[in-house]
């Protein structure tokens, strides 16, 4: 059953065809009555039935298209490091390994201080101890090549 037929069969329900998509795009881009909304991405998650019903009611009362058009939200592109097709030299590989090992070493030193801090601040917290021990087990398994 297509959206039009379904709406004719059940006129009290909201129309669920392409019109709904257009409504949501309109609601998301037109700032109505100066309202600032904490939109989430993707847009469909933010515009619940209750929000749509309220917006339709308000716009019917005051008029459609009277809001300020907000700029489009462009998707954020992931930043990637690309070396192109060039292969890393042995020297570059060694430098990269040393840099990562230094970061790991610094993080490991910080991590190793946690048991003392945890036991002082939260002497009876079994959950924090369990999280720490589970993390240690994970590191050991990774070092041994276990998956």
From TrEMBL:
<protein>
    <submittedName>
        <fullName>Uncharacterized protein</fullName>
    </submittedName>
</protein>
């Amino acid at each position: 059953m297509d959206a039009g037929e379904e709406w004719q069969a059940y006129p009290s329900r909201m129309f669920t065809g392409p019109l709904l998509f257009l409504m949501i795009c309109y609601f998301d881009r037109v700032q109505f009555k100066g309202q600032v909304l904490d939109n989430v991405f993707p847009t469909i998650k933010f515009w619940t039935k209750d929000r749509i019903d309220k917006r339709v009611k308000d716009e019917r009362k005051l008029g459609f298209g009277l809001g300020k058009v907000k700029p489009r939200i462009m998707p954020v592109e992931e930043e990637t490091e690309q070396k192109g097709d060039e292969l890393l030299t042995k020297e570059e590989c060694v430098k990269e390994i040393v840099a990562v090992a230094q970061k790991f070493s610094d993080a490991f030193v910080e991590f190793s201080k946690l048991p003392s801090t945890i036991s002082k601040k939260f002497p009876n917290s079994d959950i924090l101890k369990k999280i720490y021990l589970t993390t240690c087990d994970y590191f050991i398994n990774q070092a041994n090549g276990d998956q």
